[in-house]
Structures are given as C-alpha cells and as structure tokens.
Amino acid sequence: MIENVLFGIVGIFAVFAAAMMLGSKNAVHSALWLIVNFICVAVLYLILEASFLAMVQIAVYAGAIMVLFLFVIMLLGAERLPVGESVRTYPWVGGAALALVLSLVIMLSLVILFAGQAETTPEPVNATAQLRLLNAAIEGTEETETVAMEGEATQPVVTHVDLYVNGELFADDIEAGHATDFTEVPAGDHTIAIHAAGDATPLLTSAISLAPQSSLTVIVRPTADHALVVDTLNDDFTPVQRRNGRVTVYNAFPGVGAISIVRVNSILFDDSRNLDILVSNLAQGDSASVEIPEGRYEWRVIEAGREEEYRNTLAEDALLYRLPDIEIERGVSKLQVLAAETDAVSGQVRADLIDGGNLVGDAAPNFGTPESVGGLLFIDYLLPLQLVALLLLAAMVGVIVLTHREDSQPKPSRATRRKVSRPLTSVIAAQTGTDVSTNAPQLPQPTQDPVGD
Amino acid sequence: MAIDAYIILSAVLFSMGVLGVLLKRNAILVFMSVELMLNASNLALVAFARQWGGLEGHLFVFFVITVAAAEVAVGLALIVAIFRTKQSINIDELHQMEG
User: Fold this and answer.
1) Domain B4-93 sits in CATH 1.10.287.3510
2) Residues 6+ apart with CB under 8 A from A444
3) A67 part of contact set with chain B, CB < 8 Å
4) For all residues of chain B together, what is the average pLDDT?
5) Touching check for A50 and chain B: CB below 8 Å?
6) DSSP-assigned letters across all residues of A266-309
7) Domain regions of chain B by residue span
8) Fewest C-beta atoms under 10 Å: which of A149, A400, B6, B31?
C-alpha cells in the first residue's frame, strides 16, 4: 500500500521535473531539473527492488553524466540561446511529428498492457518441481549395529539410505543427519522408495505428487521402535516479513512424543521475560513454521504441555534438551529437523538439530542486490561487459580525436621557411629612425677565474 | 503492484523526451531530452524485470546506462567541436548538409 502512495508521489514529481526541464529557458536550470528527474527514477528503482540500479542511476547518471552536461553548458556559455526567428521552413512539422509520436507511444503501451491482461497468467514453461532427501535417522550408530533401547527387541539400525524416484537412483548413500540439495524433477506423480544404502530391496515406498514450481523435502525419520518412516514436507517460499527469518521445525525425535520449543532471547537474563514459546505441542512427524526476528538464539526443548510452566518457573525437570547457537538470517526460510543423535562416548541419545539448509525460492530475497546482479554480470554476461568496456575505451579515444585542435600550435614548417635577411637592429632602426645598435645593452663579460675550481 | 502504472509513466516520460528532441533548438537540451528517453525505457525494463522476476532486465539497464555514458561523452565532444567552428549550438543554424 505504501508502495502505491510512494509511487504516486514520486511518479508525479518525475513528470513535473521533466516538464520543468522542457520549460526552462535557462539550460542550467534544465540540467538541474533533469537531475531531479533522474533521482525520482532512482527512487522508483528502489520501489521495484532494483537497489543496485538505483545506486548506479545516482552515481553514473545524476552524478557523472549530468556533471559533464553542466560543465559543457558552462564552458560554452550556452545557458541561453539568443532569441531570434527560427530558420526552419516548416515550423509546424515538429509539432505534428510530436503529436504523432506521442499518441503512437501511448497507444502502443496501452495495447501492450491490454494484450497482457487479456492473456491468462502464463503457464510455467517447464513444469518442474524440486525434490530433496533429508535423513533424520538416529545419528552416531554404526550401520547394521544392533541397539537395544528401553527393552525393545534388537534389530539392525539403518543409518545410511538411498532414495529411488520411479525406480531410478536419486540420492545415493545419505548419512543420518544429512540432507541433499534440491534437484529439479518433473512435476507430477512419482513413486519414491527408500533403500538401506546399497541394498536392492526397498525398505519403504511411498507415492508423492509434486505440484509445478513446488519444493518437497522427503524426510526419513525413525520411530520409537527403530523402524524408519518416510514423510514429506512442502517447503514454504512465501516472502518473509522484513527483518524476520522463517524457521520450519520438524519433529523427528523418536521416543519422547510431543515436544515444545522455547526460544531464549538473552543469554544473560534467563528469566520468563526472555523466553518466548516458539512451538508448542509438536507431535512426532509434525512440522510448524514460525517467523522470528534475525539473530542468534538458544532453543530449549520442553515437554509438551509444560512450556508455560517452564516459562514461569524454569522447572528443570520439564527441560529436555538445550540447543545452543541457532542462527536466524533475515529474509531466509530455513528447515530445522529435530533429530536424535547417539553420543559416541556415553551411548546416550540426545537431541540434535539437522540444518536443512536455507531455502531459496523463485523470488530470491536478494533480488536486484549488487550481489545478485554482480554474479550474473561477471559470470553469465562477462563477454558483453568486456565489449561495453571496449566501447567506453573507443568513446574516450573518439572524444580525444574530436576535440583535438590541430591549429593550436604554430606549424613548424612556416617557421623554418622565414629567412632573416637583415639584422633585427637595423629593422628597428629603419622603423623608428633611431640607431639602436650603438648603445645596445651588453651582457656582462664572464670573469676570468672560473667559479668553484 | 501491477506494472501498468510504471509502463504508463515510462511512456509519458518517453513522450516528453521526444517532445524535447523535436522542439528544442539548443543542441545540449536535445541531448538531455535523449537522456530522458533512455531513462524512460530503463524504467520500463526494470518494471518488466520485477514483473517476471528475472535479473536480465537489470543487466540490460546497466548496459544501457554504460552506453549512454559513452554516447554523452562523444556527443558533448561533438557539440564542443561544432561550437568552435560555428560559435553556436543552435541546431537551426546547422544546416550545411541540406540537399
């Protein structure tokens, strides 16, 4: 909403500045109004999320180019043209051409606009979706090791898995606690199968349906009795509020049941004022998405239902795990999977957050920043950049050639042709009528003894 | 926000630039009007880039700005050279090339 208001004000001012530029009698005033217009356009660039171009617009256009204009206007003293009759034969031609061009341009833009509106929203050219695998099996246990927990029957524990999509290998040998990157797959229905690493028979199969342009994370998580369950999570790419980051928490921790997570805002003051309940009653296999301000936090996993109690009394028996140092970045969506990890020394199972990595959607949060434009400029468009640099070099040489004055120095050929037939004193004597040669000033004669010898 | 408003603003600014090129008699002002037209087209490019989420439009604007800088340098050098010979930059008086 504020964008529209700002656009209205700045747009009207841009048109006003352009009109003043055309209306000014003094060329210097015209140049200054043009600078105002350029700055208005730079603000419009900012509204359009083109921060890099706004910078370039101010620095190059409003700065360098307009200084050049003002310099030339001042140099030539061309602020005002002398008023006089136009020598054009048909002065109305300009006006007629103007009316023609003006109506043409506006009609063309309207036609383009309405043609664009008549079409339905274009289908994505390649209906693809993104898929990745995150293995949240219990970390730290060796493959095929048998683990007995809480008196359950022993069975092999799988920590490394393969993912097959439609019978083809998609992700090979993914260790517990790790995730693959997103890979493009065609949208539509697929069958996915989870195998123990290197094993030909699938442990689990599941059918998934991928919408175009969506992103799906396949999560493998253990149940309380060490079997594996496959779950899918659609990632949320909708824009995050300014200064916030989004965290999607997925509970893959076996054996505890539902949990709650509180966020500690201050390391120094560990009291209820600084504890925010982030997620409450997150059952195993569920996910919750929250937006929180950027920064580093400590998270605490609390028994479900006791988070208010913990917040008020800091009851230690409600606290299950501490997860220190979780970083939330601005404008970034992040997946955090709460998984179990076996301590190598004590054999205890403790909580661990698997960082699912930052999710970067279609509308990247750094759209139009110098970073993104620079990446494109120096990687994909390096050759055009070099050509433009060459063009600038050629322009520089051209300027030198154009403004170089051949006749500014006396020609050496004329100086050598002139011959002096008479001594200069006699010429002066002939013109003034006095003899200047008699009492001409003499240079002092050098003394005999050389100096410094 | 839809880009309609940006395109119409761009068309209006472009037309004002055309007006300056056709009606102004001071060569420097004609040049400045050309800059106004370039800016209007840049605005349209950035608006379209925003609409379609592609950064190529931004790159194109970057190149346009660079080329405009080169063009201004050469053009102003031409104006200075013309001023030296004719003592005027009124484009009505520069009609030696008429047939």
Assistant:
1) yes
2) none
3) no
4) 86
5) yes
6) -SS--SGGGEEEEEEEE-TT-EEEEEEESEEEEEEEEETT-HHH
7) 4-93
8) A400
Q: Is B94 an interface residue toward A (CB < 8 Å)?
A: no
Secondary structure element (H or E) that encloses residue B77, with its range: helix B56-86
> Which positions in chain A touch B6 (Cβ < 8 Å)?
7, 44, 48
Q: Read out DSSP for B25-56?
A: -BHHHHHHHHHHHHHHHHHHHHHHHHHHT-SH
Token readout for B27 is 């060569």
Taking the C-alpha atoms of residue A296 and residue A314, their distance in angstroms, rounded to an integer, is 21
Query: Per-residue pLDDT tens for A309-341?
Result: 777 777 777 777 777 777 777 767 777 787 777
Neighbours of A147 (CB within 10 A): 16
* Nearest Cβ partner for A65 among B18, B29, B72: B72
Are A395 and B73 within 8 A, CB to CB? yes
CB proximity list for A268: less than 8 A, separation 6 or greater:
none
Lowest mean pLDDT of A21-25, A252-256, B95-99, name the range.
Answer: B95-99
Model confidence pLDDT, tens digit, residues A98-118: 778 778 777 777 777 776 665
**Order of all β-strands in the sheet with A168-174:** A168-174, A161-165, A188-196, A202-210
Residue with structure tokens 């700005």?
B65
- Tell me if residue A202 falls in helix, strand or coil: strand
Check if A76 contacts B (Cβ < 8 Å). yes
pLDDT single digits (tens) B22-59 = 888 888 999 999 999 999 999 999 998 888 778 888 99
Across the interface, of A48, A87, A396, the residue whose CB is closest to B93 is: A87
Contact B28 A73 (CB under 8 A): yes
| Chain B residues 52-71 with CB within 8 Å of chain A | 53, 55-56, 58-59, 61-63, 65-71
User: What span, in angstroms and rounded, lies between the C-alpha atoms of B94 and B10?
Assistant: 31
Length of chain A: 453
CB contact under 8 A, A44 and B56: no
As a whole number, the mean pLDDT across chain A is 76
Greatest Cα pair distance in chain B: 52
> How far apart are the CA of A373 and the nearest CA of chain B, in angstroms?
7
Nearest CA in chain B to A89: B92
Q: Which one, of A91, A377, A209, lies nearest residue B61 by Cα?
A: A377
Q: What pLDDT does A362 receive?
A: 40
Of A27, A53, A72, the CB nearest to B62: A53
Which positions 340-369 of A are in contact with B (Cβ < 8 Å)?
Answer: 362-363, 367-368
Q: Around Cβ B97, how many Cβ atoms within 10 Å?
A: 5
Taking the Cβ of residue B97 and every Cβ of chain A, the question of whether any pair is shorter than 8 Å is answered with no
pLDDT score at A151: 43
φ and ψ of A280, to 5 deg: -125, 145
Rounded to a whole number of angstroms, the CA Rg of chain B reads 17
pLDDT score for A350: 67
In B, minimum Cα distance to A57 occurs at: B65
Q: Sorting pLDDT into bands at 50, 70 and 90, what band is B75?
A: very high
